[in-house]
């Protein structure tokens, strides 16, 4: 019988993981963190928040989200010190893993890190094969990003507007690119009587709403094919799935994220928060049944393999999916899962499509009195049609129309072009921005939006600038581990802040210069004094695994404290309080 405690993030994963571990012959006790262990204090309405980052860039202001969760983890580990920290295999999971390791360092100084990507047996076995120590270096990007974002927000908190690395970049992006939710789709007949030629575009200069309605009302001329080409698609990443779910199922990005997470926790979907557009060979083999239902032309060998930079596969279903069902008549979880399966089937096929010349359309529109710029623009659009097998979920016969897209889908699509944010925050940033009232339902700036734009730091309005900060947070320079008296995320945050434009650097330094250096609180003693969270049955179960002397055997364990610089797999006390 194994002596294992598995620490995971989401409560919903507990039952499914326990079942999977039993199938694998591992009789483990599973406890959850409920996401991050710590939060920064929420700002009270109308009040200025107290400082939470000091002049040494230490984020000392973190406090427990739920003290009972911390207490329960320590209780369980005291009884069973063989610990597997099985948080998600992403940057947030790495931060949580390090926080867990620090929380239990006095009773279990050498926990194992299991980078979990799914609840099914194959995913758990893959994670077990990657087992290693909990690495402090892995937590650096996530902790650094959080410090930088708080510093930027707090440095400008007294300006009367909300300033943030992502939110302000979204404002600048809307102002410069002027995205719109109004679109025009045009359908022109084909000379061979087969499916029509389709072109579509946003309704923005040189196309006005009145011009679009006039064009849509015309019977466009017959077009001839000029070339036949092969087309391939890639599997979708989480952002693209959110966009498709918004426009097909009417789900907000956060609703789609919630649906994907629920399927993931139920063992029906691979890791959802992925920015990859490729699938490993092993995952492609699992897709054979889905591709088989898509027809003879579907081939798993056509699926793009993920790059070396990709930690995760593109999200893909686990288990059977019926591609013939209507996703709009299913639950959110199953509807999104079906859309993902259709995307995989689409990526597993070679598609034939044809192009037609738009000059004929341009001449036709000019003859009907359409302004020259608008006619030229419509003629320059890509006029295409799909041939052969229909792409799953794709309508080949469509009519000309003016239609409206969801504002959250359009804004997310634009943000993705600029690499703003991470998969875990794509949806929340977009939805938070839309709630501020800076844009109307068509994504045009409101008066409030124009005011905020004029008062926002120019550098932060540039989405490329935000993306560069994101990239800098991801870069883990080995020199940051050599800075005495500072954690690597403190050193990393300081390096990034001092590389920013002088106006922003001076603003941030000025905001924290008067805050004395403070240690990050150690909540272990406090939570140990809380009432027990374990039921008698749980205590008996744990006692059966470890024996009645387990607590005594581990109570005097001390973590290894090597001389500086130290190995990244160890957990020195002076990282917690310095």
Structural summary, described in words:
The chain is of the alpha/beta class. It has 23 helices and 13 strands. The strands form four sheets. The chain has a five-stranded mixed β-sheet, with helices on both faces. It has a three-stranded antiparallel β-sheet with strand order 9-8-13, covered by helices on one side. It has a three-stranded antiparallel β-sheet with strand order 10-11-12, with no helix packed on it. The radius of gyration is 27 Å and the shape is globular. The protein starts with a strand and ends in a 24-residue tail after the last helix.
What topology does this entry show?
Elements: E1 5-8, H1 13-23, E2 29-32, E3 38-39, E4 63-64, H2 67-79, E5 83-85, H3 91-103, E6 112-113, H4 121-129, E7 132-133, H5 136-155, H6 165-177, E8 182-188, E9 197-202, H7 209-216, E10 225-231, H8 238-249, H9 253-265, H10 281-286, H11 288-292, H12 332-347, E11 351-356, H13 359-367, H14 372-380, E12 383-387, E13 401-404, H15 407-417, H16 426-435, H17 447-455, H18 463-474, H19 488-497, H20 502-512, H21 524-528, H22 536-546, H23 550-554
Helix pairs in contact: 3-5, 5-18, 5-19, 5-20, 6-16, 6-18, 8-9, 8-12, 8-15, 9-12, 13-14, 15-16
